[in-house]
Amino acid sequence: MSARPKIDTAQRRARLAMRHLLAPAHRCTSPEQVAQAVVALHATDPATVFLSTGARLDRPGTAALERALYEDRTLVRMHGMRHTLFVFPAELAPVVQASTMRKVAEKERRGLLAFAAEGGFDAAWLAKTEQRTLAALGEAGQATGARLGELVPELREAITVAAGKPYEAKQTIGVRLLRVMGMEGSIVRDRPIGGWTSGQHQWALREALPELPVAAAQAELVRHWLASYGPATEEDVKWWTGWGLREVRAALAACEAVPVDLTEGTGFVLADATDPVPEPAPWAALLPALDPTPMGWRQRDWYLPTENRAELFDRSGNIGPTVWWNGRIVGGWAQRADGELALEYLEEVGADAEAAVAAEAAGLQAWLGTTRVTPRFRTPLERRLSG
């Protein structure tokens, strides 16, 4: 019996530099290439999509990404793994919908029906309101939730939630209904109101996605993910997808993933990815809060020492802006009110690293210009540096 392939930490960092387009020699020319390389760009914070893309482009900017999202539709913003909002390559949208979101959307739909019933609105009323919303959106082309509430007054109907409790509040039918419709795929988040950092988006109609079998879609999603993030453990795949362990193991088997030895235990790669990759030239990168690379694995010791995590994560597990050197997180960064980028190292890195990081910071600051970016999820280091 041949020995199981072993992939050490240095090799994992080399693969990260190449596959995630972070080393300068591997950066690319289009947002579509970036999205394909990392599979999914976190989009809960609108600025993250642009900053994550810019960190991997030869010539960062906003125009190409806006064109891909809102004109060419080669990228799509939708809910995905762990109920989180992402930007995916358009061709991957049916896979994400079938593998992950269909089940979630069904649960959300049941919750919506129960919520509406609390206010005295039955399923027939809700279905009619939904059809009126689709018709209004088709006529308008695109509209914010507030504008849709003007066009379809039923969306403004408010229902009390948690009645009698300290956190009692009123919530409109529109907030819940538009979210469910987005999860189901009948509507999509479109161009924002304001600049690229704005969180106030418009809605637009979306073409129906092809129906795929769940198991086949799960295998396809894991295949894409391992091509970018492998080697990875079962726990990594389970965490990233949000699936149960049985689903993870079935998908790994279906895409014929190969077990390998890691420092953390058994990992998996695609069958054509067991051979070593060349070591890249020394590289530095400044990645934004919620970037897909630091958020890509559950087990992070190989690129982030445990003792540095408290500074870089908020209490919900969201990572802030990070400084990278040769495949490791070595510090953090933030933008101050005057636009200056502030850096802090969490360990000694040496003069070569500091010079490379300074060059990346100067490039990012020049690109941002007068734009000010404050992460939606604030971390201890980012708060301290931005103050």
Automatic annotation (TrEMBL):
Record carries keyword DNA-binding: yes
Alphabetized UniProt keyword annotations: DNA-binding
Pfam families associated with the record: AlkZ-like (PF06224)
Entries under InterPro entries matching the protein: AlkZ-like (IPR009351)
Single Gene Ontology MF annotation: DNA binding
Official protein name in the record: Winged helix DNA-binding protein
UniProt organism field: Kitasatospora atroaurantiaca
